[in-house]
Design brief:
This is Bifunctional UDP-4-keto-pentose/UDP-xylose synthase. With about 350 residues, this protein is an alpha/beta fold. Helix content is about 40%, strand content about 15%. The protein has 15 helices and 13 strands. The strands form 4 sheets. The chain has a 7-stranded parallel beta sheet, sandwiched between helices. Strands 7-10 form a two-stranded parallel sheet. β1, α1 and β2 form a beta-alpha-beta unit. α6 packs parallel to α7, α8 packs across α11 and α10 crosses α14. The protein starts with a strand and ends with a helix.
Amino acid sequence: MKKVLILGVNGFIGHHLSKRILETTDWHLYGMDMSTDRITDILENEAYKSRMHFFEGDITINKEWVEYHVKKCDVILPLVAIATPSTYVKQPLRVFELDFEANLPIVRSAAKYGKHLVFPSTSEVYGMCHDEEFDPENSELICGPINKPRWIYSNAKQLMDRVIWGYGMEGLNFTLFRPFNWIGAGLDSIHTPKEGSSRVVTQFFGHIVRGENISLVDGGNQKRAFTDIDDGIDALMKIIENKNGAATGKIYNIGNPTNNYSIRDLAGMMLKLAEEYPEYATGAKQVKIVETTSGAYYGAGYQDVQNRVPKITNTCDELGWKPSTTMADALRKIFDAYRSQVAAAQALMD
């Protein structure tokens, strides 16, 4: 019976992973976060109360609680991070302080107590890599100039990867996983009207619900390989299980190369799908697609990646995993999940 520690348990990955663990295993789950809006149903579920142990706290403040639970648990997932591009550009120091500095003591505790550290790297570490598919073992990690603070997230995460790899050379049992544009319900709040404050799928979805125009940054020709959250969680469960130590010392891209679409294509797909739902159709009819520049949308320090396709050969072979959800099905699941929230999101226009 594993004891799993999830820091950032109320986040996008955290709450989906918690639900899967409690539904499908006998593992005990220890979670910390500053809020509980995404995990309320889990915390209130009588069937889970003996295995779900939640503490409301902050990794930058409740350091003794964190270290004690790293020592107590078998698998450690520090999922606390800022991952919104507008923050990279406007508050780069905040990104570094949380994503690197606040997570470093947790990494050191995992090494100290001999735990399996499952750490979220990011597809962003590859930066503007020119490879057709990004290979965790061979692709070069290419970032822009210092005057583009957009890259502080990529750099902070890359440095953490290197530190963890260094601890691995000294015996740390670790696995680094790199999510490629995981999408699903609960990614960000659809109630946040400010542009750039959430990830692209949620941003577009909120605009459709409220009948607002969708802005395509620099033409929207940038491509991303989108991955359904449930496919991502399937891979994470196999990493946490770590059968025969297969995931130890490994770096895994977790993405779906077949769901590689431009941001412009994404907007079109979402608008077309919205027409099929009476709850969304009215708002969708009011939406116009407009173009803007990255400078106007994010700020002067932004720079983008034109293509980001994961090489997942080792992920599939070593974990016995493969992504199976099509883009159409992944989007439909999101539209289905939010049907009951449409009125509340529309009220933001009032």
